[in-house]
Amino acid sequence: MPEEQSPLPLQLLHETLSTFLADNPKSPLAEINSPKECFAIQTPWSDNSMVIEVDGENGALHEALNAVILPARYAAIWHKDKREFEIIWTAFKVPSGISDVAGRQFTFRYDNIAYKCEFGPSSERLLVIASSVMPIGPSTTQYRNLFSFSTYLTGKENENASPSTPFGEPLSFWIRDIPWDWDDDRMLDLATHLNFHMYYYDTRTPQILMFNMGQEAVIKPQSRYREEKFPAIINARTIDAHAYYFWDASLSGDVSRRFIYNYQIIEYGTFYFTDESVKRSMRRILSAPSASSNVENTMRLLMDAFGTSKMQEAQKMENLLRNIVDPAVIWREIEQNINYFTAPIQFDGGYELAALIKPNWKVDDFSHQWLPTFPNTIRGIRNALSHGREQRQVQVIAPTKKNAQYLLPWIAPLSVIARDVILYSDLG
C-alpha cells in the first residue's frame, strides 16, 4: 500500500490561517521570492506596498491574524472577538506639544450609542503583526503607520541599541464598546464624526486616516506641446493681469481649486465678450466725427448699444469658445483619458455627471457636437463644486479623494481652453 503523502507547507498554512483568509479575501497567502523567499500574506489591507511574512512556527502570528480583520480603508485592525477597533498611531515618542493626547480617554455618544475611546497602549496582536510586515514597494498609505512599530520592535530585540532612541511606547487609538459586527460603511460614518468632533475640541488631535478603497486609475498627463514642437520665434501678445493670476493659481493645489480657477478664466473672458452686431454699433458710435465733442451723448449711445445684446451668459460662453478654441486640441486631451468622458459619473455628494461623449466618437464627431455640451457640462461641475447642499442646489461634489480622481482628467482640456481665452478672448 503506498505511503500517504504529507501535506505541503503552503497547504498547512492555508489550513492554519483559513479563518483569516476567509475574513480577508483580498489578502491571499502565497509563496514569494522577493524581497526574500518565504510564505507571505499578500496585499494586507488591500495594500500592495507590503506583505506579512508567515511561517509554520509562528503560532502567535497565526492566532493574531485569525482574530482580526484588516480593513482596506484604514490604518487599523478590527478585533473580532472584542468588537474593538484599533487605529494604528505611533511607536515614536509623542511630541511634547501633544504629549497630553497619550492616555486621553473620552466617551463619544453618537446615534444613540456610547463608544469608549482612548489613546492607549497598542495590542499584542498589532505588535505581532507589525513584527512580520515587510515593505515591498512605495506606499501611498504611509505603510499603514507600521514603520515606527516594526523599527521599534527591531530595536527592542537589539541589546546594543542606542539609549537616545526616538521611540516611546507603541500607542493606538481605540474605539471600544462597539455593539455591532464589522460594517465598513457604519465605521466610515462613525470615524468621520469622530474626526470632526475631536478636531473641534483640539486642533492638534491626531486624525483617523482614511484611504481610497479602490485601486487608483492612472491618469495620463496633459500633452506637452501645443504644436508639434516649440517655436523658434514667439510674437508675444499682451495678456490681462487678472487672467494671469487665475492661470498661475491653476497650475498647482488640489484638483477642485484648479478646476475652478481655470473655469474663472473662461468666465472672465465671457464677461467681456460681445457679439458682432454690438461691436459694429459701438465702432460706428466711436467713429462719429462728433464723438469726442459730445461725450455725454456718446456714452448714452454706447450704453444703449451694449444693452441691445440679448445673449445670456451661457450663450456668450458658447460663442466665445466657438470663435477662439480649436475643438481638435480639446479632443486630444480628452482622448488621453477617454474612459472618464464616455460614461456617467456619480460623485460623492450626489452630483451626477452625464457622459460627455459616446464611446465610438472620433475627433470629427466631437468637433461637430462639442457645443453647447462642453460649456454646459463644465458650468454644472463648477456649480456643484462651489455650492453647499442647500435647497436650490441639492447635488454637490464633495471634497473626497474619489471625486478628485474623477475631476483630474477634466483639468487638461479645461486648461487648454483657459489658455486660449487668455491669449485670444479680445479677438472673440
What does this structure look like?
With 428 residues, the chain is of the alpha+beta class. It is built from 15 helices and twelve strands. The chain has helices spanning 9-16, 18-23, 59-66, 124-130, 147-157, 184-201, 241-249, 255-271, 276-286, 295-307, 313-324, 327-336, 363-369, 373-386, 401-424, and strands at 29-32, 38-42, 50-54, 68-69, 76-79, 84-92, 105-110, 113-121, 133-135, 167-176, 345-346, 352-353. The protein has a six-stranded antiparallel sheet with strand order 4-5-6-10-8-7. Strand 5 (76-79) and strand 6 form a beta hairpin. Helix 8 (255-271) packs parallel to helix 15 and helix 9 runs antiparallel to helix 10 (295-307). The longest helix is centred in the C-terminal third of the chain and has 24 residues, at 401-424. It is elongated and about 100 Å long.
List keywords for this structure.
428 residues, alpha+beta, six-stranded antiparallel sheet, 12 strands, 41% helix
| Helical content band | 40-55%
Instruction: Provide the residue-averaged pLDDT.
Output: 89
Instruction: Count helical runs.
Output: 15
> How do the strands of the widest beta sheet line up side by side?
4-5-6-10-8-7
Total number of strands: 12
Percent of residues in beta strands: 5-15%
Helices and strands: which structural class?
alpha+beta
Profile the largest sheet: 6 strands, antiparallel
Order of helices and strands: HHEEEHEEEEEHEHEHHHHHHHEEHHH
Poorly predicted ranges: none
Radius of gyration, taken over Cα atoms and rounded to an integer in Å: 30 Å
Shape: elongated
| End-to-end CA span | 93 Å
